[in-house]
Amino acid sequence: MNASSVERAVYFLGNDRVLNFGIAAFESFRRTNPDLPAYLLPFNDDLARTRELCARYRIQIVEDPSLKILHETAEEFWDEKHRDHAMLKKFYAFFGPAKLFLYTDCDVLFLEDLHPLFDKFDRAGLQFLSFDSCLEYVYKAGAFRDELVSSGVTRGFNAGVFLARNASTTLPEVQAFFKTHKAIRREFHDTRDQAMLNYFVDFHRWKHLNFAELDPAYCETNNGRFCPVVHKGDAWVLDDKFSRYHGKRFCILHWNGIKLPGVLPNHLLYRRDRHRPESFSTRVSLDWQNLWKGRAALSQRVSDYVGIQWQRVAKRFKR
């Protein structure tokens, strides 16, 4: 493990399996943050093409024995061996080289320079900043969750994107914590890392806000399903008058839980950064794969769009 040597940085977690998302994430990251240090936490050894991308986009691949220990910590916590437990490697960022860090999965797009975000976080003296709430996918419904909510302890955040400080914990502390808190597993929604990170943050009562609480100009969710996100002035905002998030800014767009190939919400933003480094023939091939695989989803989106437009027309006639 490294002593802190970088003021601020971004950590990705990925491998070749998520390469289509990864290319778009890396391309958008370097377009908006050309000089910010970045690291990749390898999900596993499937990294042949990922290594090429990391070299192209100046992203350093972390090779540290603590990554294997974190994977094993999750396996021991759940009493099972499973590839998904490698997601706990994101805890490395809490004792990695960056004093302030943004962690993100690869299914994201960066829409803004991150330095103003880091500045706001640092000035507020926070330990943790989340970007989306998904309480029902963290803790099971019941008395335990109700108590955490009523006491203001939990926000039930999505663990795919967050901002935090290092030196908040250590590897031995993480190991000891999950070794001695196995009983809490029955309260978790599933066996993924999301509930583990939420409970760790909640238990230690870290000073934690949602990004919209830190800056109300921003949307309280970064979910890529909200669309269309469009460029207005100097910001990317949601342009949907039927949404309570209308006009709110987006800093990072996160397609949490959506698989590729398929037709994505805000797919034009994805195509812009996914296709930029590709040849014309590869672009056409990728578009065809996504269109064919996502034809059912596309039909539903067209139907939804027609319905929304009809509501708008009907509303005008009522006035």
Tell me the CATH topology of the domain at 6-214. Spore Coat Polysaccharide Biosynthesis Protein SpsA, Chain A
N-to-C SSE series?
EHEHEHEEHEHEHHEHEEEHHH
Under CATH, the homologous superfamily of the domain at 6-214 reads Spore Coat Polysaccharide Biosynthesis Protein SpsA, Chain A
In one word, what is the shape? globular
Spatial ordering of strands, largest sheet = 3-2-1-4-7-6-8
The biggest beta sheet reads: 7 strands, mixed
Q: Distance between termini?
A: 65 Å
CATH class of the domain at 6-214: Alpha Beta
Q: Oligomer, anyone?
A: single chain
Kindly describe this structure.
The protein is an alpha/beta fold. The chain has a domain of 209 residues: Spore Coat Polysaccharide Biosynthesis Protein SpsA, Chain A (Alpha-Beta Complex). It starts with 5 loop residues before the first strand and ends with a helix. The mean pLDDT is 90.
Lay out the secondary structure.
Elements: E1 6-14, H1 19-32, E2 38-42, H2 48-56, E3 60-61, H3 65-78, E4 98-105, E5 108-110, H4 115-124, E6 128-130, H5 143-150, E7 161-165, H6 171-180, H7 193-203, E8 208-210, H8 211-214, E9 229-232, E10 235-238, E11 252-254, H9 267-275, H10 280-293, H11 295-318
Parallel strand pairs: 1-2, 1-4, 2-3, 6-8
Antiparallel strand pairs: 4-7, 5-11, 6-7, 9-10
Helix pairs in contact: 1-2, 1-9, 3-6
